[in-house]
Amino acid sequence: MNQSLIGSAYDKKLCELFDKLFSMGNYFADDVSLRSENLLGSKFHLTPRDLLWLYFKVQKAFDIQIPHQTLAKYKFLTYNGILNIINDVKTSSKKAV
Question: What is the domain partition of the chain in residue ranges?
Answer without folding.
Answer: 3-96
